Each structure stands twice: as C-alpha cells, then as structure tokens.
Amino acid sequence: MPHPSLQRRHILKIVALTVFGTLVVWYAGALLSFAGSSHGFNNRFSAVALQHHWWFLVWSNLVVLKGYLLVAAGYVVMIYPLVRLWGKVRPFARWGVVWRTLLFAGLLYGFFIFKLMLEKPYFGDYSYLLGWYDALGTVCGTGVQNAVHVLIAQVFPMTAIVAAAGFYLFELRRWFARAARPLLFSFAAVAGVLGLLVVSGYGVSRAPDAVELAGGRKRPKNIVILGSDSLRADHLSCNGYPRLTSPNIDRLAAQGVNFDRCLTPIASTLESLTSMFSSQYPHTHGVRHMFPNRAMVDTANRESPSLGAELQRLGYDTAVIGDWCACGFNELPMGFKDIIVSDFDNFRVYMSEAVFLHHQILPLFFDNHVGHLLFPKLKSFANYMTPEVVTDQVIDRLKQRATDGKPFLLFGYYSCTHLPYKTPTHYAKLWTDPKYDGPHKHELALNVDQFIGGTDINEKWSKLPPQEVEQIVALYDGCVRMFDDSVGRVVAELEKQGLMDDTIILVTGDHGDDLFEPNCTFGHGTTFNGGDQANHVPAIFHIPGLKKPQRHSQIARTLDFAPTLLDLVGAPAQPRFEGTSLAPLIRGEKQSLGLAYFGESSYLFFRRKIPGEEPLFIPPMDETTFIDPDFDFHFVLKDKFQDAVLKTKEHCVRTERFKYIRTPGVRHSIERLFDLREDPHCERDVKKLYPEVKARLAAALDQWLTKHVQSTTQEIYGILGEDTLQPVAP
Fold this sequence. Notes:
This protein is an alpha/beta fold. It is built from 27 helices and 19 strands.
C-alpha cells in the first residue's frame, strides 16, 4: 500500500527537526571530546588553562553555537528540496523523511570533509580518512583516483546545487503563476541576474591599463615582498635544486637578480623579520629570542628604524598581509600602517583554536569571508588563515592600489614551508613515495608537547632512517611548490593590473630549515651546525628596467634588503641601518662589496651535542616561559631565564670561504672553524690548521659583539686573500 503524501510544511518541519537534532548530537559529541581530550594542552600549560581560564573555555564552546545554527539553516535549504524530489519519485512517510535527511546530511558532511582532506588539510587531521583514497590510486592508478576526486568534489556539489536551485525556481514560478503574475516573475528573474552580475563585477568592471595607472606621470616604484617561513634557498630549482619546485620564482630569477648566497643574522621568525625591516642586528634592536616581554617590544618600536616608516614618509601605502607566521607584526609592525595577519602568539588564541577544532562542523564552512565575519578570531588561528586566503587578500590589495594609483609597499608572508610541512594532497604527492606508509605520510609527525616540554627530542630524531628522511624532504619540497604557486598568482595579478613595470618584487624568507643534514636534524635557529641551510634564504629581485639578468654568489644579508630597496626607489638612506645597499652591484657600479656575515642563534629548544665538549643548555619552553596577562596573554620568557638564554647563544662570523662558530660551554667557550670550500656541512674542525684565520675571525666577532662594529672581508684578512690561504703543517 503506497504511503500517503505528506504536505510540504510537514516535510520541511521533519527535515528541520532532523537536521537540528543531528547537529545537537554533533555538538554534544564535540563537548565530550573536548572535555576528555588533552588536545593542545598536554603540557604544563594545561594546568594554567583549566585553573585560570576555564570560564573562557566554556564561553568559547558557547560562541560556536551560532556557527551550528548557520550550518543547520544551510543543510535544511539544501536537503529539503532533495527530499521533496525523492518523494515525487517514490512517496514515503515521516520516518522515510528522517532517514533520507540523515543520509543527505551525512553525504554533505562527507563531501566537505573530503574537500578539506585533500585541498585544505590545515583544518584538522584527516589522515586517517585518506587510506581508501591512497589505496584507490595504488590499485587503479592516478587517472581513476583523479576521476573520483572530480566526481566527489565537483560533480556531486554541482548536481546538488542545480537540483536545489531548479526546485526553488520551480516553486517560485508556481507561486507567481497562482498569483497570475508570470510577467512580473520574468522581469524579476532578469533583474536578479543583472543584479548578481553588477555585484560580482563580472562583465562590468575591468582592470585599468598601464596608461591609466600611470596617469601620464612618473611615480615612485612600488615594492612587493613575498616570503615564506622556513624557505630554503637551496631548495629552489632556480638555485640548482634537481626537483622543479619553483617554476614561477624561476621565471622571476631568469629575468631579474638572484643573490644566491643570502643569509639571515638569526634563524627565528620574529627576530629575523625585525632585523630584515629594521636593518639592524638583534643585539641592536633588542629582540633576541621569540618570547620577548612588553618592554623589549616597546623599545624596538620606539627606537628602531624601519623600511615601512621611511616609505610612509614618502607617501607610500604600507601593508603586511600574512597568516599565523606573521603574527609578530601585531606587536612589532616595523613601520607598516595596515597589519592584516593572524594573532597566533597568544595563549587565548591557542585555547580558542583547541575548542574550535573539536567542533569539526565549523571548518566545513569557515575558511571564507562569511565565516570571518561571523567569527573574527578565525583569522588568528594557524589552521584558518590559509595560503589561499593570504593570496586572495594580497590580490585584493593590489586591485585597490591599481585603482587609486598610490605607490605601495606590500609584504605578503606565508607559512607554506613551515613545520609540519602540511599541504593539500596534490602538493604532498608530488615527490613522496606512493608506497610509503609510515608516520610521516601526509606531514611531519611532530609531537608538539614533546617539542616544547623536553630537550632530548633532537637525540630521538637523529636516529631517523633514510627512508623517513627522504619522505620528510619530499613533503617539504611540496610545500615549496605551494608557495611558488602563490607567487605565481600574485605576479599574474600584477601583470593583469599593468603594475609589473612599476613594481619591484623581492622573493625571500625569514630563515631556512635543517632537514637532517650532517650534525643536525630539523628546526632552525638553535645552532650553526651542519652548514648554512637554516640561515640561507632566497633573495630574488624583479627590477623594472633591468638590462639583463644577474646572478651574484657573494655573501648578501637580509639585513641589506631595506637599504637596497630604498636605494632602488631613489629614497634617501637611513643612517641607523646596519645593512649595506646591494644596488651598486645591481647597477654594475661595483664588482664586490666584500661583505662578511655575522649571526647568532635564538632560543635553544634542543640540547646541543658537540663530541668531547659540554655545551650550555636551558630547561624546556614550558618551564622557561609564562603567559603574561598584561601583555595580551603572550608567551613571555621569565625574567630569571633572560640572561641564561643569551648565555646559551652560539655566535658565528662567516666569509666566502671560512666559518667560525663560538658555542658557550660549561667550562669554556667551544671554538670551531670550518673551511666551507672543502667542507660545506661543517663536519671537520680546522682551527688547528688555520690558527691565523681563527684568530682574525674571533677578533672580528668580538668587535661586532662588544662595539657593534662589523668588518668587511678585507678588514678581517688585511692583505691576505682567503682563497690563497694554506694550512699550517700539523
């Protein structure tokens, strides 16, 4: 016997109640998961969170309810017409509506999870769901795998949207027909389509051409700096890396200027970027580790010069746009007027993200403008301000400047290449072994609690088998390619807006990363062991009007960027800059600047290991830092460890051939000298073979540390030429 047809309002009521009931169950499950889980708090900070911020955790769990309500409304709008259409084919009763609603809700949830899993993995750990997808590619080949991807990610949503839209249009037409107003419906439909076109700008707006941008007058050159956290210069294909990791950056290098031996004075983000834009060494601007207190930050803001401030005085629009790796600009803006970045260096942001990630219904929708309006703090989360969002905002900013013609300094900063090397699946699969099935299949399996709560993790990672190392390096290379695609999108927009001939582009990084080279494991900023890779960054310039491409292999420093860019746009030099303009090399006025490199390490996470020596070390991060409520809940180094951190710093001076490292030890300083021409990974200490070199570099280091005076290579060696130096007899 066929089921009697249910009235429309009854079906809508059942669908709505089922959807809301389902989301209530999901919400309750998220609360239970959060209550019983230590996600994000499995260390000494957990006690602080639960004892002093429990009310904030409760409030954060209540705030997410508005997201559930919006999701519920969207589900009802999508599921109701699908259930109605199904009912027209085969009538069913109330329970039929319920289970069909549950089916469609599950399909919608599965669709969004699948999209996140493959395209936006930052929102959570979905690696446990990738097994079937990886197996499909292994058994049936990538062609079938890609077809399934298209079917689920594109065909399914388009089919559902078309079906729902057709249903609502049909229902609307029926209502107009009953009201005897079909002509009014036709006019309304046409007006609606035209309104959408106007709002979207499609077919109405156009990019102004170069003549309109220039306005018939010459204006100062714009500056766009694009950087990625932990971007190694030697992993770009334009610098000789065998994998094609950077085709877009390669094109800039092939037509521009490539300084392929550029080094940062400190391999830690906050300190390095402060040095880059202030053109001052850490011991000058005072930000010498990643956990400064308010007084240090205020001093740097008050006393340090900056590229942004110099250009603002010349009428430039200045902005930095970035994800969580750019959060330091909230406290240290470095002269940038507009700061559009995450605020991840904040304990309450950590807690909020831990709450939000347990409510896995939220990431399905809130990597977009609507979500950012509904939950403004999403922009502060590491998992939400994605590279795609950063690039979209950079492009929006470029469009604004193309319209008003105002000269600009724009810094776009990404976390693409930062630990744990997590990218959308198509990047992760570029060079990884499809047969690999270990812990690092989709990202570096790093336990954050062990990282911040112990000092022996370096010892554990040093025993990693070669297969695991190869997998991690391949994941990193996929991250480089992701950043390169972001660069490509920005460059394409500059070309589209007619800005390339008016804009200097610099592609760089704050520092590199150790990737299990000799005498090191992973990370950055803790040591000068194993070579230059943690301090070696790209320095690739696009310079309008350049006569021919250039490649410079002599030492350059990120400290030199600010004076170079001011020089290139014809702005006066800032006398308090400690860097040197590279423009004379670019213009061919000089063949060499004779620059030497001076650097220091940052906060020591790992216990150093030097055979036969006993280096200094400090307790782990969760013992040495605290959450400062008077400094916006930032992690701050405790006063009693300030001197200890400075005393554990390694210092280094490097010329083209030699590298001298001084490491604090329990009984005495540990001095090492390496001949980089013969030993690029710094495995053989040659201080006994070159005592004169060691003495000269040690003296230059002392002068830099005590008097803030940096020496050139010629000043260090005098009339000696380092290329002709020979070892003394043993």
